[in-house]
Design goal:
237 residues; alpha/beta; Cobalt-precorrin-4 Transmethylase, domain 1; Methyltransferase, Cobalt-precorrin-4 Transmethylase, Domain 2; 2 domains; five-stranded mixed sheet; three-stranded parallel sheet; 8 helices; 8 strands
């Protein structure tokens, strides 16, 4: 299981040399997207010419049988690499079903060390790292999105849980504006953009403080949002 870069950064900034050496030994890859996988392998200076590597894309609707078929195609190679488009395969990205199929086939599954936007954002946020959940993309519709944000905020308040989610980069500003409009003034919001890159931005403050601040420039930047609501006292209820 191979973590892929989150953005434009030297491989040395996010990947240990020992992990890169392991990747260099792999000739067969099952990937989310062949084009981005080739770009990542080129960035890692894979010693085998890209056109000679065997790269299979994961089907959009994948089941255990399809996973077994992809893994069995590895023969006669003795190892298979799994790559998603960015971050860690199997963690909020495709790849988990491949790992499960490999276990069922009696294969050893090895996770390599590398970047995870979820963990990096959580580490830098100052929010609760003991209880958290990642929700992926929220609804695009304005009303449905507001409803979901209020639902996540209420759950965060009840359970003291950090809620993490993402948005398509060109819609980041709409998500930020929706958070500022919908959430309680004392709720904490972390915005983390361009993680691992020179342009990295991470800031956590209350919704009230965000309302008084200039909105961060999130246009076309990969970003992750983390929300932690404050518990309400009985008298406040």
């Amino acid at each position: 299981m191979i973590p892929a870069a989150l953005g434009a950064a030297p491989w040395q900034a996010t990947l240990p040399a020992v992990a890169r050496a392991e990747i260099h030994r792999i000739e067969y890859f099952v990937v989310e997207n062949a084009k981005s996988a080739r770009a990542e392998l080129k960035r890692l200076d894979h010693p085998i010419p890209l056109q000679q590597l065997r790269i299979a894309e994961m089907p959009r609707d994948m089941d255990i049988a399809a996973c077994r078929h992809l893994l069995e195609a590895a023969a006669p190679a003795d190892r298979t690499g799994v790559l998603s488009e960015a971050g860690c395969p199997g963690v909020a990205d495709p790849g988990a079903l491949l790992a499960r199929a490999a276990h069922e086939m009696g294969w050893q599954v090895r996770p390599l060390v590398g970047p995870s936007s979820i963990l990096l954002a959580l580490m830098a946020s100052g929010l609760d790292g003991q209880h958290f959940a990642f929700h992926g993309y929220l609804p695009v519709d304005e009303g449905a999105r507001r409803h979901k944000l209020l639902e996540l905020e209420a759950q965060s308040r009840r359970e003291r849980r950090t809620q993490l989610f993402i948005e398509t980069p060109y819609r980041n500003r709409k998500m930020f504006d929706a958070l500022i409009a919908a959430c309680a003034p004392d709720s904490l919001l972390c915005v983390a953009a361009d993680l691992t890159m020179a342009s990295e931005f991470v800031r956590t403050q209350t919704i009230a403080a965000w309302r008084k601040s200039d909105a961060p420039d999130l246009d076309k930047r990969p970003a992750i949002f983390a929300l932690l609501a404050q518990a309400r006292s009985r008298t406040a209820r």
